[in-house]
Amino acid sequence: MSIHHTAVISPEANIAPGVEIGPYTVVEADVNIGKNTIIGPHAIIESHTDIGEGCRIYQFCSIGGAPQDLKYRREETRVVIGNFNTIREFVTIHRATGSGNVTSLGDNNLIMAYCHIAHNCAIGNQVIMANSANLAGHITIEDYATIGGLSGILQFTRIGAYAFIAGASAVTRDVPPFVVASGNHARLYGLNLVGLKRRGFKPDTIQALKDAYRIIFRSSLLLKAALEKVREEVPDLAEVRQFTGFIEKATRGICR
Predict the structure, then answer these.
(1) What pairing do the DSSP bridges indicate for beta strands 179-183 and 186-191?
(2) Using CA atoms, how far apart are residues 166 and 24, in angstroms rounded to an integer?
(3) DSSP string, 99-117
(4) pTM of the model
(5) 134 bridge partner residues
(6) Is the dihedral of CA 122, 10, 58, 114 positive or negative?
(7) Do 105 and 81 form a contact (C-beta atoms < 8 A)?
(8) Rg of the chain's alpha carbons, rounded to an integer?
(9) Fewest 10 Å CB contacts: which of 2, 102, 128, 169?
(10) What is the mean pLDDT of residues 141-170?
């Protein structure tokens, strides 16, 4: 363990072996930091925060602050961060609203400089948020999604797995898995073919997703009929079921 002598560490913080904490960083009570995590200078880790092992948190980050939510009444909530995450300069991650709720970040994510993750967000694994991407409250981002820089996502929106949100987009509706969305307001522009190939998706799987996308978004069928046609005509693959299942569960509308 290596803690700079100017850091302010509460005796009620739980710090595992191998942790490094830089100059002038503040770690409050009821903070748990996993082994081999490195926290740079001038960071603030507020109470009710759990950080996993092997994370790298850069200078001037603020993690665990009270939510920017008028409904918040100082109830006990948490920020829970998994393992091997990289959180770059000036990132802010706020704890949840609603007693017992959490703002969560999974494993192996890259959160670039100046990003904001608001209260009650749930971020999966292997997610990339580029510089100055901003999430409002109650947003879900599934595994392997990429959020372009300077993008803003409206509260309660869901971003599906392997989706790609282009830079400077304003997302106001759910974005299905495996697709590209761009613009203000964001629209769909086909499958995230580059991302899917990089992740090793088989050609047959990509073709099935292309067929499902074409039927749902480029035919004249109503959504219910289009989903039924996908079930009848497209191979019954797990990825296709994931794609259609996400759309069927949408409550605030899907980007078109």
Answers:
(1) antiparallel
(2) 36
(3) TT-EEEE-SS-EE-TT-EE
(4) 0.97
(5) 116, 152
(6) positive
(7) yes
(8) 20
(9) 2
(10) 98
The closest of 107, 106, 159 to 133, measured between CA atoms, is 159
Taken as a whole, the chain contains a residue count of 256
Report the alpha-carbon distance of residue 211 to residue 86 in Å, rounded: 36
Whether a cis peptide bond, with omega within 30° of 0, leads into 185 is: yes
Looking at the DSSP bridge assignments, the partners of residue 2 are 20
pLDDT score, position 222: 96
| Per-residue confidence (pLDDT) for residue 252, from 0 to 100 | 86
Contact yes or no for 139/159 (Cβ under 8 A): yes
Report d(CA 232, CA 241) in Å as an integer: 12
CA-wise closest residue to 187 among 253, 116, 111, 118: 253
Task: Enter the DSSP assignment of 9.
Answer: E
Residue among 47, 192, 109, 24 nearest 39 (CA) = 24
Identify which of 37, 87, 36 has the alpha carbon closest to the alpha carbon of residue 58.
Answer: 87
Contact present, 93 and 110 (Cβ < 8 Å): no
Q: Dihedral (C-alpha) 103, 136, 139, 63: value to the nearest 10 degrees?
A: -20
- Closest to 28 in 3D by CA, of 16, 40, 11, 3: 11
> Could you report the per-residue pLDDT of 63-86, keeping only the tens digit for each?
999 999 999 999 999 999 999 999
